[in-house]
Amino acid sequence: MRQAVVFLAVLCCVCEGVKFGQLCSGNPGNTRRTSDKYGAGHYGAPRGSRTHKGLDIKCTDGQTVYAPFDVTIQRRSVPYTDPAMATINNGILMRGAGLCFKLFYIQPVKTSGSVSKGQKIGTMLPMQSIYPGITSHVHVQMCDSSDPTGYF
Ligand code: ZN
Question: How many CB atoms lie within 10 A of CB 130?
């Protein structure tokens, strides 16, 4: 048990105290999606037979999405395989502040290269057109699918 604790402490020293900067232009406090008729926004929320692997941060359709750290964009990354979801099926995978994470439901300004904290990295896609009445949001997911909540 003690070995496990020491190991975790070493693993996490890089990211301790790291907090995401503002993600969405209309949401300076990174307020989270709570619950709506489609589900809840917290990590581990039920999604049918699966669970929610990320954390949802409120963002109104069309608003500007900012880099939460100085980041390097690695590639495009998308949440769905279903062509019916094409309108909102976009996002990027990036690294910054020692973290690797994905942002979904944004139209990225680019899919490689660097973006400084607070600069535009994308635009919130029209989520209401797919899920009318949902709390529109950016989905934040760690590359290892661990819980991002401690970084907010
Ligand atoms: Zn989500």
Answer: 17
Whether residue 97 contacts residue 69, with contact meaning beta carbons closer than 8 Å, is answered with: yes
Alpha carbon of 38 to ligand 1 centroid (Å): 11
Give residue 17's pLDDT. 87
Cα(78) to ligand 1 centroid in Å equals 12
Q: How far is the CA of 10 from the centre of ligand 1 (A)?
A: 29
Question: Ligand 1 center to residue 43 CA distance, Å?
Answer: 8
Amino acid making up residue 77: S
CATH code of the domain in which 126 resides: 2.70.70.10
CA 66, 107, 142, 115 dihedral sign is negative
- In the chain, the number of structural domains is 1
Q: Is residue 116 included in any domain, yes or no?
A: yes
Full domain range(s) for residue 71: 17-151
| Residue 8 maps to a domain | no
Neighbours of ion ligand 1 (CB under 5 A): 54, 56, 139
Q: What is the pLDDT of residues 88-145, one digit of tens each?
A: 999 999 999 999 999 999 999 999 999 999 999 999 999 999 999 999 999 999 999 9
Q: Could you tell me the distance, in angstroms and rounded to a whole number, from the CA of residue 4 to the centre of ligand 1? A: 30
- Tens digit of pLDDT for each residue in 25-66? 999 999 999 999 999 999 999 999 999 999 999 999 999 999
